[in-house]
């Protein structure tokens, strides 16, 4: 038999290797195509995360495409054990002190929170990053969802309250806000419940901590009310607006003035569009307390819980009201 030349052997070997490569490549492509959906599901929420936020899950299926896009909820899945849906899993991405804070939350069939987990964070080490630690995030475990979660400092007084990480109120609020968004979506779209939005605060004698029996609106540069007691003007409520973080969406604040003491009785944020979990902390009672009992002279800005631009906008609105109170109302004008 005629011996093959070296060239012929090389050509034969090359063709053989090429055929093998094509076959293997085809097999890999086939396996990938048939399993890519499950691979994507497994990568989306890993087993360790599911063990925390939805124990007993065997498979998950994406149902985000059934709803309009949500700016906070980036992914959503049905969690199943066999054919039974045992709960729903939501992935949220929000801005904390820094962008890209990602939270997972598991909600059971009854609409209660199973648990939550921070899966990605660029928050400050030793401060905001601590929202991922058990001491903070475990506060959400097994919680009912009858009311929005509220971040507080110190000790809790109600079931829905979560103690903030010391020195990291922004990060703490961001996590709570993200979970609240998931709960709200779940109630509306999965449970079919009507979610009643919290009633906006009003400028009243009571909310401004004033004494009186009558409010009378008067004309002027700003919306203003005389507060009267037995017909005598004993205070004023002045409503002003100023931009906070968003220049095109100013906040509106009511400021109460007590004529007897010439001090601010209280402020109420009537309207704001500041960032959830960040600038919207100006609605908290702690922010109001920065103004209560202050003299009616221009106030120096105090940054509240790291919400710098929102704080500045609110102080500027209050200072506008103080100037109007001193230079117009207390001079007998309007």
From TrEMBL:
<protein>
    <recommendedName>
        <fullName>Ion-translocating oxidoreductase complex subunit G</fullName>
        <ecNumber>7.-.-.-</ecNumber>
    </recommendedName>
</protein>
<comment type="function">
    <text>Part of a membrane-bound complex that couples electron transfer with translocation of ions across the membrane.</text>
</comment>
<keyword id="KW-0249">Electron transport</keyword>
<feature type="domain" description="FMN-binding">
    <location>
        <begin position="244"/>
        <end position="325"/>
    </location>
</feature>
<feature type="transmembrane region" description="Helical">
    <location>
        <begin position="12"/>
        <end position="32"/>
    </location>
</feature>
<dbReference type="GO" id="GO:0010181">
    <property type="term" value="F:FMN binding"/>
</dbReference>
<keyword id="KW-0597">Phosphoprotein</keyword>
<feature type="modified residue" description="FMN phosphoryl threonine">
    <location>
        <position position="169"/>
    </location>
</feature>
<keyword id="KW-1278">Translocase</keyword>
<dbReference type="InterPro" id="IPR010209">
    <property type="entry name" value="Ion_transpt_RnfG/RsxG"/>
</dbReference>
<comment type="similarity">
    <text>Belongs to the RnfG family.</text>
</comment>
<keyword id="KW-0472">Membrane</keyword>
<comment type="subunit">
    <text>The complex is composed of six subunits: RnfA, RnfB, RnfC, RnfD, RnfE and RnfG.</text>
</comment>
<feature type="domain" description="FMN-binding">
    <location>
        <begin position="96"/>
        <end position="186"/>
    </location>
</feature>
<dbReference type="GO" id="GO:0022900">
    <property type="term" value="P:electron transport chain"/>
</dbReference>
<keyword id="KW-0288">FMN</keyword>
<keyword id="KW-0813">Transport</keyword>
<dbReference type="GO" id="GO:0005886">
    <property type="term" value="C:plasma membrane"/>
</dbReference>
<keyword id="KW-0812">Transmembrane</keyword>
<dbReference type="GO" id="GO:0009055">
    <property type="term" value="F:electron transfer activity"/>
</dbReference>
<keyword id="KW-1003">Cell membrane</keyword>
<dbReference type="Pfam" id="PF04205">
    <property type="entry name" value="FMN_bind"/>
</dbReference>
<keyword id="KW-0285">Flavoprotein</keyword>
<dbReference type="InterPro" id="IPR007329">
    <property type="entry name" value="FMN-bd"/>
</dbReference>
<keyword id="KW-1133">Transmembrane helix</keyword>
């Amino acid at each position: 038999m005629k011996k093959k030349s070296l060239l012929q052997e090389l050509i034969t070997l090359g063709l053989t290797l090429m055929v093998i490569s094509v076959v293997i490549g085809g097999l890999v492509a086939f396996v990938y195509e048939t399993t890519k959906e499950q691979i994507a599901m497994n990568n989306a929420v890993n087993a360790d995360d599911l063990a925390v936020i939805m124990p007993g899950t065997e498979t998950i299926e994406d149902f985000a495409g059934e709803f309009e896009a949500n700016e906070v909820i980036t992914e959503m899945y049905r969690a199943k054990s066999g054919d039974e849906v045992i709960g729903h899993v939501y992935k949220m991405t929000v801005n904390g002190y820094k962008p890209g804070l990602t939270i997972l939350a598991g909600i059971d069939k009854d609409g209660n929170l199973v648990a939550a987990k921070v899966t990605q964070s660029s928050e400050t080490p030793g401060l905001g990053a601590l929202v991922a630690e058990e001491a903070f995030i475990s506060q959400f475990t097994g919680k009912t969802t009858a009311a929005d979660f509220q971040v507080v400092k110190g000790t809790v007084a109600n079931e829905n309250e979560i103690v903030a990480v010391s020195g990291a109120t922004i990060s703490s609020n961001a996590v709570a806000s993200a979970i609240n968004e998931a709960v709200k979506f779940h109630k509306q779209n999965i449970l079919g419940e009507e979610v009643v939005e919290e009633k906006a605060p009003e400028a009243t004698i009571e909310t401004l901590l004033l004494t009186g029996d009558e409010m009378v609106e008067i004309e002027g540069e700003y919306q203003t009310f005389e507060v009267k007691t037995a017909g005598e003007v004993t205070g004023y409520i002045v409503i002003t607006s100023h931009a906070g973080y968003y220049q095109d969406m100013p906040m509106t604040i009511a400021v109460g003035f007590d004529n007897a003491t010439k001090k601010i009785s209280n402020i109420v944020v009537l309207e704001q569009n500041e960032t959830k979990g960040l600038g919207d902390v100006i609605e908290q009672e702690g922010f109001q307390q920065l103004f209560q009992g202050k003299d009616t002279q221009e106030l120096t800005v105090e940054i509240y819980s790291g919400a710098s631009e929102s704080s500045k906008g609110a102080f500027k609105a209050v200072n506008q009201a103080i100037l109007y109170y001193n230079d117009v109302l207390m001079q007998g004008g309007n």
